[in-house]
């Protein structure tokens, strides 16, 4: 009998207890099966890697052509910046699919978390792509608007005049630091997450994989102390990665985009840019796990639960896309300020109208009105097709915004501090052959790097799969068998 | 939840219905005290109707004062219900179970409190009929549907209806238990009428569950639209510096969630103290809500930072002059400092410590601080923007709230507290069926030498069980 706080006695009730499948044999079976898949590289894999490698080579040719044209004309570099922003939006955001559900203790992330983290390796390419942008970003001495308020002195007695001491190259310094930090944090996250799996490679692998595992596992033997250390470090690095991702999008959206269009003052846009990244990151992962399931041999591990989980996220993010977009659009359209109307003309109703409509359909209408149906979310093909739609739409979005802005910047550069564009470009900037090479090449390059990384690092998280055995059990509930999941923390 | 007390269904019924079927000693004095405050507020309102809005501190150029700041505050609090109930329900967060009902009910009462103030603000509340009917039938002059002041009542009204429906659907199984346990014939009949014949058949449970999930999902866009529209009351204007900012809609919503969830944490502490519900609301629940609050508060602070950065980014001297007024000049400067300290600087570092997060007392006081800060935030958004001196000297002025305004604002707080107390007297403030479901789902799993809490996973695709993944 148990007594409650009012002193009344009640019959004590015990909690039901269930057994897990966490036997040594089961755990070994998971390692063996996943290592077996990891160790085999099919011909199809190499064929596709060769194709993406070829695309990458085209990207490098495009880049050389671009550099040959010089850094003076801003509009020439619009597509380059757009593809850089697209990669920052997709590959740099994909790890959030591992980070966020891990923090929320969602077990469905286990088979896909490593693939999500592995995209941070492709972030090294983003870092390389960023280097020429340092020369393209105009100094604050040129009188452009900036987050750093350089050289603006309306009145000496105003409280913010201290900002005048900010160096003219502040945007260059802070954006570089942020992007380098993001890449370093991403690589640290992959390494921390891989430590136990490197130890598995060391103990069970052969040849170069064993040597690679020995070097990188740093004497991991799985003591309680090591597990606690890894868990806490992963938590810290994940939190910093997320914060840095938001900051990077904040910098990119302001210093590489908004400052180029006089009158574009939109306090919501950094959030919108970061949100686009989360949406595209989820879409990237949907497509990645589709490929891993269909062609990578992971059919037994990547199930409907993963597509369903990501599908729900994409549904919510698509609705948020509309809300963020409408929150800005509504204010601009309703208030009818001349500067904001010319911005709408540049980005929505003017030369880029068709691109905007296509993007609206691909990023909002199609995902929202299809993913709202459970049968679509709970399928394998549905989310994959919708992911392609979202990624295409995001690419169009980046082209529309960056190409249009850099085109406007080239015309209006001297009057950056003015509150309105003097001249809204009448025509779209059509891509040159070098631009097409850049777009195809660097998207292919990212995939190529991801594929190579997947040969070095198991693309399926072995230790998280084994950990799942600790927390997963089946129980009888009346006439049905149900899944019982442990929530350890 | 790591901490848990497995209870029998009988014990849950007995404990959670105890204060409905009997009267606690403190209940009547509390109701009378709050009733006096409500009556005083209504008296002040009657005085204002008789003498006109001149008895308030509103004057050119500040036509929006305490009433509108209070309106925005209560709309913010109303976001707690859907945040806690709908979002945590959809994400299957187990810790939500004992706190959903209180959050939903607070949503309904705070929406009614929010509607009070703009009605009072217009001076002659019967004129709100013009929001629905034409000014003049003969000439067919209808209200301008392009005005945010027409969107506002539509959105808030829709939210009130949806929230009330949500509360009612979630109450059905609990009202059925009350019907079966109530003693008086008249009371029994009322409960029998309200529970719509709920007997707990599999079909009724299925319908009730599906309705709850559907309402959770459908009310979410309404939840987002309400505060977005409230923010657009300000942001679509270009005439007042500091208001025309695209971030206003999400900034208002995240601020609303910050104050709303804080209010729920405060209610949880009160429920533990007043109703002795410590078998249901554990330190773990406070820990969970505090962690949610850390995320929400930090996000809110980032939005606040962006709002300020972009105000300075404009390099527009009137905008910068407004920011100086808000942050550095008397009397708004000290209020601004208090607002930032109370809503972020004090509570968030405290919540970083697990020991404090698990304490009902600390959570109670820190969340009260948050709500004082968030009330000031609304005040500082509205008043300094209007009070700022412009080139037109006849538009110079200042604003001091009158006693009438203060009494009416106090009345809204008393109204919500009174509403919650009356509700808790006739219906359970903790959902019995939800808590029982949590008990049924609860299992234990042995991991090494530790025993780990586990729960039945709901809503997986049916073929998940046919194939092993």
Q: Which key phrases capture this entry?
A:
heterodimer; A: 489 residues; mainly alpha; two-stranded antiparallel sheet; B: 469 residues; Formate dehydrogenase/DMSO reductase fold; two-stranded antiparallel ribbon; 17 helices
Our count of domains of chain B comes out at 1
Please bin the fraction of helical residues of chain A.
55-70%
Strand content of chain A: under 5%
Q: What is the structural class of chain B?
A: mainly alpha
Average predicted confidence as pLDDT of chain B = 88
How many structural domains does the protein architecture of chain A include?
1
Show unreliable segments of chain A: none
Query: CATH superfamily of chain B, please?
Result: Formate dehydrogenase/DMSO reductase domain
- Roughly how many Å is the radius of gyration of chain B? 24 Å
So how many helices of chain B? 17
Mean residue pLDDT of chain A: 88
Structural class of the secondary elements of chain A? Answer: mainly alpha
Please state the oligomeric state of the protein chains shown: heterodimer
Shape of chain A: globular
Structural overview:
The complex is a heterodimer of chains A (489) and B (469). Chain A has 489 residues and is mostly helical. Chain A is built from 16 helices and five strands. Chain A has one domain (2-137, 169-485). Chain A is 66% helix and 4% strand. A two-stranded antiparallel ribbon of chain A has the order 1-2. Chain A has a two-stranded antiparallel ribbon with strand order 4-5. Chain A is globular and about 80 Å long. In chain B, strand 1 (442-447) and strand 2 form a beta hairpin. Chain B has a two-stranded antiparallel sheet with strand order 1-2. With 469 residues, chain B is mainly alpha-helical. Chain B is 68% helix and 3% strand. Chain B has helices at 9-21, 27-51, 66-77, 79-90, 100-121, 148-181, 185-194, 202-235, 248-275, 283-313, 317-328, 332-345, 347-351, 354-357, 360-387, 403-426, 432-441, and strands spanning 442-447, 450-456. Chain B has one domain: Up-down Bundle (Formate dehydrogenase/DMSO reductase fold), CATH 1.20.1630. Chain B has 17 helices and two strands. At the A-B interface, strand 3, helix 9, helix 10, strand 4 and strand 5 of A face helix 1, helix 8, helix 9, helix 10 and helix 11 of B.
